[in-house]
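Throughout our pipeline, every protein is held as a single compact record rather than as scattered files. The record that follows is passed on verbatim for readers who wish to inspect the format:
___
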Amino acid sequence: MDHFRNAITAVFYSEDAKVLACRHSDNGSLQLPQGGIEPGETSEQALYREVLEELGIESFSVIKRALETNTYVWPEPNSKGQIGQRIHWFLCQINPRHLPNLSISDESFSEVTWIAPEKLLSHFPDWKAPATEQGFRLLGIL
């Protein structure tokens, strides 16, 4: 059994070197759009599904896919006995005609904002920030 859940993270990057951060509806924390890869689904399929579900974005561009994945360990294992996530990183760009539309999303997030990558890292817990920083480096934005 793989002890890591396979997942994707979408890093939307702007021309002024900021990333799209999402405020989680449950606890108010900032995070990046992300989610698990379902059985039989490719990482690219999961990317488009998760972005539509979480942000209501129907059309966007993938600028780069990181050649490597990385992992982080959760404070507690999940109900499936997995201890963390293995992240497939994608650098994306929003199509100006298809901006985030939280009204058609799954309501995971209450708002979105653009923030410098370095500043966003300071909002992440200690167990997640190093893997996110490495993901930003894999995508070439740090």
About this structure: The chain has a mean pLDDT of 95. The chain has three helices and seven strands.
